Amino acid sequence: MSETRQAALMGYHELLGMQVVEWSEGIAVVELVADPRHLNRSGIVHGGVLTSMLDSALSLAGLHCPLPGRVRRGMTLSLTTTFVGPAGAGVLRATGRVRGGGRKVYMACGEVTDAEGLLLAMGEGAFRRRSGSESPEGVAE
Question: Which of 38, 52, 94, 112 fits 57 for a cystine, CB–CB 3.0-4.6 Å?
Answer without folding.
Answer: 94
